[in-house]
């Protein structure tokens, strides 16, 4: 309720109170009452005394009604003002430039990423972000962040395999380290989730062509179909997070808005997802560049 609606309601309450006072006999005596008093030989003061006494209870009721009406009007107005203040607070735009110890913001899209995630009691650190764009207009669809275990052991492993952390071999190298990894997508627009599913499916189909063994290729195709079946219908709202958790046991877990959608046990699917963003045919050269340089910087800390 707005303030002016409350103000109009309070005005109505005042008019109701005034009418109550009038009915209680606080207005001027009617002419017919005065004439009847004169015919009976009674003075106006004599007639007024019992009338005033009879009107006393009605006056008290009218005063109580007026007080209650005024209090209700003030309460309604106060509630309306408080609600308006809350609406103003909700309408304030989010701060898209904040960068502190808890969150980092992708430079191109402004998408927000936690600087750390916890996965199975393992602390994962954000090493880089990038943005996925489509069409020649370079429309931003979602931002991508890569998380790796914040451990001395992984830093040493990256240093030992520094030469393999290049686009052509980076995904395979990281998967073979048997460390938990996480790729987070944060929606910038509101894409249909089926577009993400089909795009990832096409990237995996391209990799399937390089598998020579027919049995191995059939198994990988089955895993791809299982992966695509995990995606629900509908759109992703701006700010929603899609997580691809790559576990050391070869299982990929897919989550949307923090809720698990299921798992697929396939090293091929794991490697394909990572290669889609860090490999030679990355869908985001910005993400590829930032992930590789971020891993090198992380290992040097």
UniProtKB/TrEMBL annotation:
One of the entry's Gene Ontology molecular-function terms is:
intramolecular lyase activity
What Gene3D superfamilies does the database record attribute to this sequence? 1.10.890.20, 3.50.70.10
**SUPFAM superfamilies in the record:** Chalcone isomerase
Q: Which Pfam families match?
A: Chalcone_2 (PF16035)
Domain Chalcone isomerase: residue ranges: 123-291
Q: Which keywords annotate this record?
A: Membrane, Transmembrane, Transmembrane helix
Q: Which domain of life is it from?
A: Eukaryota
Segments crossing the lipid bilayer: 63-84
According to UniProt, the name of this protein is: Chalcone isomerase domain-containing protein
């Amino acid at each position: 309720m707005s303030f002016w609606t409350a103000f109009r309601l309070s005005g109505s309450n005042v008019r109701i109170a005034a009418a109550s006072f009038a009915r209680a006999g606080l207005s001027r005596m009617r002419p017919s009452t005065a004439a009847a008093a004169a015919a009976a030989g009674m003075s106006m003061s004599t007639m007024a005394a019992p009338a005033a006494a009879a009107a006393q209870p009605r006056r008290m009721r009218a005063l109580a009604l007026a007080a209650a009406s005024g209090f209700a009007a003030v309460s309604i107005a106060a509630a309306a003002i408080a609600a308006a203040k809350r609406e103003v607070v909700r309408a304030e735009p989010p701060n898209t430039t904040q960068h502190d110890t808890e969150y980092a913001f992708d430079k191109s899209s402004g998408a927000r990423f936690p600087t750390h995630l916890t996965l199975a009691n393992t602390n994962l650190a954000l090493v880089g972000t990038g943005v996925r764009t489509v069409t020649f207009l370079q429309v931003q669809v979602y931002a991508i962040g890569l998380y790796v275990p914040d451990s001395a052991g992984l830093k040493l492993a990256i240093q030992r395999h520094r030469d393999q952390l290049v686009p052509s071999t980076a995904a395979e190298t990281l998967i073979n380290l048997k460390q938990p990894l996480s790729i987070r997508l944060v929606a910038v627009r509101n894409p249909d989730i089926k577009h993400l599913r089909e795009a990832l499916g096409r990237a995996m189909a391209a990799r399937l062509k390089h598998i020579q063994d027919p049995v191995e290729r059939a198994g990988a195709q089955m895993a791809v179909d299982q992966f695509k079946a995990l995606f629900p219908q509908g759109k992703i709202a701006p700010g929603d997070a899609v997580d691809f958790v790559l576990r050391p046991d070869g299982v990929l877990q897919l989550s949307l808005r923090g809720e698990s959608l299921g798992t697929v046990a396939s090293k091929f699917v794991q490697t394909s997802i990572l290669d889609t963003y860090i490999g030679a045919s990355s869908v985001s050269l910005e993400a590829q560049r930032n992930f590789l340089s971020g891993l090198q910087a992380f290992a040097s800390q």
